[in-house]
Design a protein that fits this description.
The chain starts with a helix and ends with a strand. It has 2 domains: 3-224, Vaccinia Virus protein VP39 (Rossmann fold), CATH 3.40.50.150; 228-432, Rossmann fold, CATH 3.40.50. With 434 residues, it is an alpha/beta fold. The chain is 37% helix and 22% strand. Helix 8 (160-170) links the parallel strand 4 and strand 5.
Amino acid sequence: MTIRQLTKKLFHLSDWLALKRIESYTMVGHNRLYDLIDLLKLMERNNLTGAVVECGVWKGGAAAIMAREIKRHGYHRHLWLFDSFAGLPAPSLIDGPAAVEQFEIDRGESSVTDVESALAKFKIDLNQVSIIPGWFDQTLLSKREAIGPIALLRLDSDWYQSTKTCLETLYEQVVPNGYVVIDDYGSWPGAKQAVDEFLASRPAERINLRPLSDGSVFWVKSVTLPKPEYWSGETQKYQEPHLRLKRLAGEINRLPLKTGTVLDLGCGPGTLGHLLDRSRFQYFGVDVFKQELATGAYGQFDLDHDDWDQFSFQQKFDVVVLSGVLEYLAPERIEELLRFIRQNLVKPETVLVVTYTNFEHYLRRPINYHPAWTVTRPIKKMLSVLANTGFRLIKKYPSYYFVLNRRLFSPRVWLPWLSRRFGRQIIFILKLSD
């Protein structure tokens, strides 16, 4: 047992004990089940409405774990379980020779009694669970209306056609910000191809397929609200200063400028403007939707789509801030934005302050991905983009640090390793290249 596995068991002791009880009822490994539990907890924390649906149940081990979480939150959502209970259907050529060989060895037969026995391990009320025997192309359509909205859809359907049928039949009922988990994405080529084709047919959603343990994946169904309406709701979270904004304000306030202008691109409710030294800095904010800032000047502009000729301000600034912006733009738009900043918004001595998500951290905690993230480049690649568009790195540090006697101290020696592993945001201070 590795140190990481031992640590995980200590943090998930009650979950680990639960997994041990249903090991004989599932072929899903512990790591995948831990990830599933985390998603179920996140689903409850985010107050998503809708049922939990599993297609491909076998003997019900994963279903019992999901039912256990639903029970712990008061049975306020229903669990639907679909399986043929006659084993897997025959694979097609798309599923590959390994699938044909596996099918000849073990077709995965099980029974409703097996599932009920697994649920009994946690004393689940069977009135809160619907177990539906039959092939997916026959049962899903007939039960779709009864299922209603879906908060989490888990597919453990192995082959191409089964996975395709489940997605085409049930995906529209997954609620915005709901979860879709594909257990076999990294295990069987047919399941992977079905998912890739399905997502390719929906380019407008800009879905990020995110890895879970041992080859499984999930994604968050994108929000269908218009962008201004969506972001106006999101930015309510940032009315009060959070740690990253306090760090940025501290960095700007320490600049050796008697007076200066600060442009905050993607300013949200303009919280950064309240944290700056107003006796020295004039604050300008730009965002996608209309809002009244309590301080400074405001311009409306969609950094992802609007024409650069329509940009709100025609002047150069002493400080330009990109905080929580680059992750949400298309890759080509990032380079356009940086070139526009260089050519139109900065002076030779201007400071560019950029915050960027540390995706090394989120590869280890993929369930924390924001559903609107478009770019997930590593730190080194984003620094390369900044350098190629004409900006030179002056400082780089995690979004936590401390100040003593007006000097900034950030983690050094062994602590940067912790920052890369666990720090959620990295701050860059840049200037124009010489």
